[in-house]
Amino acid sequence: MEQEALKANLLLESLPYIREFYGQTIVIKYGGHAMQDAKLKQGFALNVVLLKYIGVNPVIVHGGGPQIGQLLERLGIGSTFREGLRVTDQATMDVVEMVLAGRVNKEIVNSINLNGGRAVGLSGKDGGLIQARQMEMVISKQDAPPEIIDLGKVGEVQHIRTRLIESLAGDGFIPVIAPVGVDEQGETYNINADSVAGAVAEAVGAKRLILLTDVPGVMVDEKLVSSLTRKEAVALIEAGKASGGMIPKLKCCLEAVEAGVQKAHIIDGRQENSLLLELFTAAGIGTEVLG
């Protein structure tokens, strides 16, 4: 009976958070190890279904870099990266779209549906959801002209059309979005999933943006920083204390909160029930960036 009483108390402790998020939209960027480990995939689906059942509207944007790399390797297509971005020619773009909008997207949708949810898979082409343009990368060099890098069919978000997302969420569905966009001429682009998630959160007026990663959060001197103001986040980047792959994630969070998202979170998707622990406990498990 003591164990059952503890469970009841835990449910009551989560009530203020359930009340806070009821009817609100939360955008989740799903990626990293959480997308590859069978137990974590199952847990993620259950977390998302639970959110929907208690009145929260989750919107999922997913990555798929490792899966893309594996298929490219099997097809004998080489991969080149510049500044962490995959140079994408037409052959690579065909594989990217097939993997993201096809296999990976439908696996996530199927997992959610098998666990009691109602998910619908989308790419940026559906309903003109993600309007994109080709990314221009210019790298400044000391005592030399800037280097202009042609990334091919790598894009950046220009505009998010929210009608389809809002319509699906309002009818009880969970949108699952592959980060493939299209421009005015119908050209298809591969877009960074973090950037798409941030743009979607801004466009739909989300209360939270959550980025699932393979690290505990923002680490400074090997210690987790649980909360950052915008000013503190910028200072970490400028001081070089945030480095590598954490910089674009922090910038994504900063852009989201500056656009009106109340908080953005960087959490460890390798931890079971990471979404619920971050949203429904006082301490949380990762790093939150405050608006």
Describe the structure.
It is built from nine helices and 18 strands. The protein is an alpha/beta fold and 291 residues long. The protein has a single domain, classed as 3-Layer(aba) Sandwich (Carbamate kinase), CATH 3.40.1160.10. The strands form six sheets. Strands 5-10-2-1-13-17-18-16 form an eight-stranded mixed sheet, with helices on both faces. A hairpin with a 2-residue loop joins strand 7 (137-141) and strand 8. Helix 6 packs parallel to helix 8 and helix 7 runs antiparallel to helix 8 (246-258). The longest helix is centred in the middle third of the chain and has 25 residues, at 90-114. The protein is globular. The model has no long low-confidence stretch (mean pLDDT 91).
CATH homologous superfamily label: Acetylglutamate kinase-like
Measure the end-to-end span.
42 Å
Domain module tally = 1
Side-by-side strand order of the widest sheet: 5-10-2-1-13-17-18-16
Order of helices and strands: HEHEHEEHEEEEEHEEEHEEEEHHEHE
Identify the CATH architecture. 3-Layer(aba) Sandwich
- Report the sheet with the most strands, covering strand number, pairing sense and barrel closure: 8 strands, mixed
The CATH topology name reads Carbamate kinase
Classify the secondary structure makeup into a structural class. alpha/beta
The share of residues in extended strands comes to 25-35%
Number of helices: 9
Write down the CATH class.
Alpha Beta
Average pLDDT rating = 91
Shape: globular
Name the helicity range. Answer: 40-55%
The low-confidence runs, each spanning 5 or more residues with pLDDT under 50, are none
Counting DSSP E segments of at least 2 residues, the number of strands comes to 18
